[in-house]
């Protein structure tokens, strides 16, 4: 037998296998590989074998934790690394580990928790035979014996979410499935994937998804309005990011369904897959897909309460409680709540939000788990503008407004009220396969009373400007259902993986129509733009009718990972989609209109190849096509034709220190038709911004990224990206989106007597951008923002964190797409957290 550290042992026996000297005696069961030992009877699972008192492992492991940095990979190697980290022994017949992969583990954990994560999805179970030894066995088809214990079942949320980042302390994760629904390591995924972990969000004080994306490699946020408005856009690889998912369930493309203002209190991590993601989204942009993964109940009691205070009267309270609700741990629950109230560096702007989240998780049987939950978020911004301020005077010279200028009327607001109920049922088969059914119901309301002063041409005496008034108000509903299976299969003597599923959603937006932009008899003018404080008469806005949009999408999809050799993997997949959208308009006066668009039998292919050059380095390439109906309209009010094209990516990835540190370099090429580009100075018949379809658009560039632990206590996350978008004539497009960005955040926990202190820093740099032509071309130079943070562990359970953002008070514009909008000046945030 060989122990987890690779050492030969003598005189050991386990499950009938005898070791004599340095050889396993022939004629007995297959040789044993890998010897490691876990700890406490797997949080009560092993207690099933002991009727009284504590198990030997529970006695041996009380209070012990170990720092792990074990990459995903073949099970024998993963267990060997576990043995080196702990000195424990795990005995198992070699045949049950052949061709089996483990998701790995990172972070500081109790050894039993680490072992549970290592075994997640392997179809193996563990039981202690003495204080120093734990054995692994295959999960029986029907686990009826109390002596057979499955850590995956008992540990609940840990095993069902192998990519879980909470509690790991890491800036990377060992598993992600947002690209293919196959549980792969970042290195095994043939696309660029960035993961914003729970630890990094906490360290940087990132409480909103827009802030998370602003710190994500290869993503640019063009903020041009208050929270809750649609004045801000997210871009990646030159295209707008419209694809949002929650727990892998896509959101509708209908206006109002994206999660671009979500609070992060309820989420474990955010996974951003850059490039086309049509395999799982169906209708999708070639930019990126943002998958927010919710927190899940934990098998042990844990929780925290946190208070924050910051610049501009920012106050926030947040609490989280999770743990078992039954003595045997088969029922678990979690509840999260948050409330925030703040002003802004922008005059008069005031924001509030409320968040409540609860989820229950039950082991219906040893192999079946059912969870149900509810998520509620309400956001409101008062005295809020949808845009910033004019960049030019009427004579063509540039303006120079203070950062605090607010172009919103003092009665203008944006409100979003979101309620989501979700449930999933998962069954684990004895052969390593799982089947999952997800159902979700999403009810929303948005209400925006618009009044923002960017109308007209600004004269130097302050005249010439007015507001754009109106109101948007709609109720939204989305019902989603997805069912899929996932597991290993054998072909030509080797083990491979397969994922297949069906799913879809029905979404509806319905609401009253109100006057927009042009209101008979209403004076929109502002006497002096420079001294205006938002005081202007509120218009009377009576409904002019009602409108409704219905969207449906159904699809079947599949992906397989074929492994002809240990070093080579092919990932092949495809999706057949059916999409339709109906728009109805019923004015109080006039003729009702009806418009329907549909796309049937659209096939989206997916192909990837990964080759492991060494145990650390891999090279990869991938291809997929692009399909996305658009909401953009041209000057005649006609919707632009769907986007279509092809996306290619190739690169190199690496796992250092057993997967504790991930690095990647990628080049990409996206060829696309019907790209919607702003048609400057032109508007649709209803007053909205007009767009034009560009044929033969091409985006290409490269990205570099690193995330994880460089050395003990030193975490890093960030990288560099370059993107160029050109039309068929070779002219640069999207010039108002940065071509080059660099982002890097790092923290270091001081050693020795100063180990209560963690220090960190962040730098975010964006290159030059410009917009417009001739005398009205606006150029914004590149800029860099530097942030600092420090955390002091006051006691074992209480810590204080201070974030100092924009240290040098850099003044910069976050958007010049149509108007100007400034980024935040220097500010501070103090957080105090107590955990238990």
UniProtKB/TrEMBL annotation:
Low complexity compositional bias, start-end: 165-178
PROSITE patterns the UniProt entry points to: TONB_DEPENDENT_REC_3
Residue span, Secretin/TonB short N-terminal domain: 88-139
Localisation: Cell outer membrane
InterPro entries associated with the record: Beta-barrel_TonB, Beta-barrel_TonB_sf, Plug_dom, Plug_dom_sf, Secretin/TonB_short_N, TonB-dep_rcpt-like, TonB_sidphr_rcpt
Polar residues composition bias: residue spans: 179-191
CDD domains recorded: ligand_gated_channel
Keyword Nucleotide-binding: no
Disordered: annotated span: 154-191
Pfam name, any one: TonB_dep_Rec_b-barrel
Membrane topology: Multi-pass membrane protein
Recorded superkingdom: Bacteria
UniProt keyword list: Cell outer membrane, Ion transport, Iron, Iron transport, Membrane, Receptor, TonB box, Transmembrane, Transmembrane beta strand, Transport
UniProt record similarity statement: Belongs to the TonB-dependent receptor family.
Name of the protein described by the UniProt record: TonB-dependent siderophore receptor
Organism: Azospirillum aestuarii
């Amino acid at each position: 037998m060989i122990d987890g550290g690779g050492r030969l042992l003598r005189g050991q026996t386990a499950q009938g296998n005898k070791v004599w000297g340095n050889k396993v005696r022939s004629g007995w069961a297959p040789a044993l590989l890998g010897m490691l030992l876990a700890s406490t009877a797997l949080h009560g699972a092993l207690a099933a074998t002991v009727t009284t008192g504590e198990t030997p492992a529970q006695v041996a492991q009380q209070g012990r934790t170990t720092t792990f940095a074990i990459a995903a990979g073949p099970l024998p190697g993963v267990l060997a690394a576990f043995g080196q980290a702990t000195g424990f022994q795990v005995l198992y017949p070699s045949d049950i580990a052949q061709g089996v992969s483990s998701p790995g583990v990172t972070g500081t954990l109790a050894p039993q928790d680490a072992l549970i994560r290592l075994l997640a999805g392997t179809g193996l179970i563990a039981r202690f035979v003495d204080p120093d030894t734990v054995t692994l066995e295959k999960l029986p088809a029907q686990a009826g014996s109390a002596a057979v214990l499955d850590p995956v079942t008992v540990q609940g949320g840990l095993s069902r979410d192998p990519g879980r980042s909470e509690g790991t302390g890491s800036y990377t994760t060992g598993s992600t499935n947002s690209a293919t629904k196959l549980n792969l390591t970042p290195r095994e995924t043939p696309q660029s994937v960035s993961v914003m972990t729970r630890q990094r969000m906490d360290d940087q004080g990132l409480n909103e998804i827009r802030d998370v994306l602003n710190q994500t490699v290869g993503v640019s946020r063009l903020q041009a309005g208050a929270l809750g408005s649609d004045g801000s856009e997210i871009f990646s690889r030159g295209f707008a990011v419209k694809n949002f998912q929650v727990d892998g369930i896509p959101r509708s493309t209908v206006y109002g369904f994206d999660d671009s203002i979500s609070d992060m209190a309820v989420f474990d991590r955010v996974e951003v897959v850059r490039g086309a993601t049509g395999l799982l989204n169906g209708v999708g942009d070639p930019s990126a897909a943002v998958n927010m993964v919710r927190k899940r109940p934990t098998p042990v009691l844990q929780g925290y309460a946190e208070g924050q205070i910051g610049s501009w009267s920012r106050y926030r309270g947040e609490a989280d409680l999770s743990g078992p609700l039954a003595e045997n741990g088969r029922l678990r629950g979690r509840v999260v709540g948050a409330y925030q109230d703040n002003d802004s560096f922008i005059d008069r702007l005031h924001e509030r939000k409320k968040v409540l989240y609860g989820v229950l998780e039950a082991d219906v049987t040893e192999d079946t788990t059912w969870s149900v939950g509810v998520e509620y978020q309400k956001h409101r911004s008062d005295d809020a503008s949808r845009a910033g301020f004019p960049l030019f005077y009427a004579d063509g010279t540039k303006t120079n407004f203070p950062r605090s200028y607010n172009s919103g009327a003092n009665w203008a607001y944006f409100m979003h009220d979101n309620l989501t109920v979700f449930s999933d049922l998962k069954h684990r088969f004895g052969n390593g396969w799982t089947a999952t059914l997800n159902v979700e119901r999403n009810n929303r309301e948005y209400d925006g009373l618009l009044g923002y002063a960017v109308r007209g041409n600004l004269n130097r005496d302050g005249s010439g400007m007015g507001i754009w008034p109106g109101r948007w108000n709609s109720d939204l509903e989305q019902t989603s259902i997805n069912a899929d299976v996932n597991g290993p299969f054998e072909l030509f003597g080797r083990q491979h993986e397969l994922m297949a599923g069906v799913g879809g959603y029905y979404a509806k937006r319905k609401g009253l129509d109100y006057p927009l932009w042009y209101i008979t008899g209403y004076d929109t003018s502002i006497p002096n733009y420079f001294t205006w404080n938002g005081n202007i008469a509120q218009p009377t806005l009576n409904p002019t009718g009602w409108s409704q949009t219905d969207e449906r999408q159904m699809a079947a999809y599949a992906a397989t990972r074929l492994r002809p050799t240990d070093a080579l993997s092919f990932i092949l997949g495809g999706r057949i989609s059916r999409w339709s959208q109906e728009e109805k308009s019923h004015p109080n006066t006039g003729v009702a209109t009806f418009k329907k668009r549909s796309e049937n039998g659209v096939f989206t292919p997916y192909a990837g190849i990964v080759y492991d050059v060494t145990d650390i380095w891999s090279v990869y390439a991938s291809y997929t096509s692009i399909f996305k109906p658009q909401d953009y309209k041209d000057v005649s009010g006609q919707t632009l034709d769907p986007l279509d094209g092809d996306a290619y990516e190739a690169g190199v990835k690496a796992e250092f220190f057993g997967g504790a540190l991930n690095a990647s370099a990628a080049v990409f090429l996206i060829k696309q038709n019907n790209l919607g580009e702003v048609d400057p100075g032109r508007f649709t018949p209803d007053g909205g911004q007009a767009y034009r379809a560009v044929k033969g658009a091409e985006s290409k560039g490269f990205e570099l990224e690193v995330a994880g632990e460089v050395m003990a206590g030193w975490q890093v996350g960030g990288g560099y990206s370059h993107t160029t978008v050109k039309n068929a004539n070779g002219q640069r497009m999207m010039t108002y989106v940065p071509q080059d960005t660099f982002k890097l955040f790092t923290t270091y926990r001081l050693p020795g007597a100063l180990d209560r202190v963690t220090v960190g820093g962040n730098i975010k740099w964006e290159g030059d951008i410009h917009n417009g032509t001739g005398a009205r071309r606006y150029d914004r130079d590149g800029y860099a923002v530097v942030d600092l943070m420090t955390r002091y562990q006051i006691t074992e359970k209480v810590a204080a964190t201070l974030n100092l953002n924009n240290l040098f008070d850099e003044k910069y514009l976050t958007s010049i797409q149509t108007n100007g909008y400034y980024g935040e000046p220097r500010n501070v945030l103090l957080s105090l957290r107590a955990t238990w």
